[in-house]
Specification:
Keywords: Disulfide bond, Glycoprotein, Membrane, Repeat, Signal, Transmembrane, Transmembrane helix. The structure is a single chain. This protein has 3 domains: 94 residues, SRCR-like domain (Mac-2 Binding Protein), CATH 3.10.250.10; 99 residues, Roll (Mac-2 Binding Protein), CATH 3.10.250.10; 103 residues, Roll (Mac-2 Binding Protein). β2 and β3 form a beta hairpin. 42% of the residues are buried. The protein is mainly beta.
């Protein structure tokens, strides 16, 4: 793999003694699984990020027909290697890339992987959501280090919303100082909370722990967006009322406002992010939502079936 890191990047091959890349004309998640397994990982997916270098050399094309269970691309049915002739292939614009995983990954509800999301553990040849019992910041850091980051923070309570992937019922994930890998962090304890754990990973140690930036979906209305750790998220609608909305609207330059609850299904996942706050209990006199009693990422409570805190702001007494 080139143009990325130890576990992700552009796939390079050597055909007839010439090194080159592969055009992704017939490449899907099954081929990604196989190439990652061939490289010593458990599973993989198509890489959707950018590359850190400029690709050079030949671009090869073939028709892959993998089932996804092979251990080597050579075990798949191939249509024969030939030089790519499509312009986008020739210019390395469609080079195949993969992200490979051994034991853990972070995913959003759509299945996209990245630097934040629900923690998933690879066990018995499938991915499971990790129970949030015992999942703390040190464990999140260990997860993030395994994914190539330097630090991380935990988020409790199924923060990315309802999921249809099973939570491991008979294991939890909690790392101690002497655990050398994530596998050593798996504990034989039942999941009592039924919530899944989430994490956000960082590429450096410059983390602003207490910085929250608030904005609205629209100029004067919509769901409240919360930017924390560089990730845009939301506020759980549990206990969200007009007093909380009034404070948010004043922060946005309005004199008044009322609360409502925004359905999760109407907000694109790519912009809604995790729940960062819950249980807001403003008096209405505060100048900032963070001055109100609230629960943060460590104690969100049950928000997995909640709607998103939203406001309608206005001036005067409309």
């Amino acid at each position: 793999l080139t143009g990325g890191g130890d576990r992700f990047g552009r796939v390079t091959v050597v055909i007839n003694g010439e090194e080159g890349t592969i055009c992704n004309r017939n490449w899907d998640s099954r081929e990604a699984d196989v190439i990652c397994r061939q490289l010593g990982f458990s599973t993989g997916e198509i890489y959707a990020g950018t590359y850190t270098d400029v690709a050079k050399g030949k671009v090869w094309d073939t028709h892959f027909m993998c089932t996804g269970y092979e251990n080597d691309l050579n075990e798949c049915v191939l249509g024969g290697w030939e030089l790519a002739t499509r312009w986008s292939c020739e210019m390395h614009k469609d080079d195949v890339g993969v992200s490979c995983y051994s034991n853990v990954k972070l995913t959003t509800l759509s299945g996209r992987s990245g630097s934040s999301g629900a923690v998933q553990l690879y066990k018995n040849s499938r991915w499971w959501r990790v129970c949030d019992d015992g999942f703390d910041d040190f464990t999140a850091k260990k997860v993030c280090e395994e994914l190539g980051f330097v630090d991380g923070r935990s988020i409790c309570c199924s923060a990315f919303g309802v999921t249809y992937t099973d939570v491991i019922a008979n294991n939890t994930l909690h790392c101690d100082r002497d655990d050398k890998s994530i596998i050593g962090c798996i504990k034989d304890k039942p999941c009592n909370s039924s919530f899944y754990a989430s994490a956000v990973c960082f590429s450096n140690y410059s983390i602003e722990e207490n910085k929250y930036n608030f904005s609205l979906e629209k100029k004067d209305s919509g769901h409240v967006k919360v930017d924390h750790y560089g990730i845009t998220g939301r506020i759980c609608s549990r206990d969200w009322d007009d007093k909380d909305a009034l404070v948010m609207c004043r922060m946005s330059g309005f004199s008044n406002g009322i609360a409502y609850q925004h359905s999760e299904s109407t907000v694109l996942e790519v912009i809604r992010g995790p729940y960062w706050l819950a249980g807001l209990n403003c008096t209405g006199n505060e100048t900032d939502l963070m001055a109100c009693p609230h629960n943060d990422r460590t104690d969100l409570g049950n928000c997995s079936n909640s709607n998103i805190a939203s406001v309608l702001c206005y001036n005067g007494t409309e």
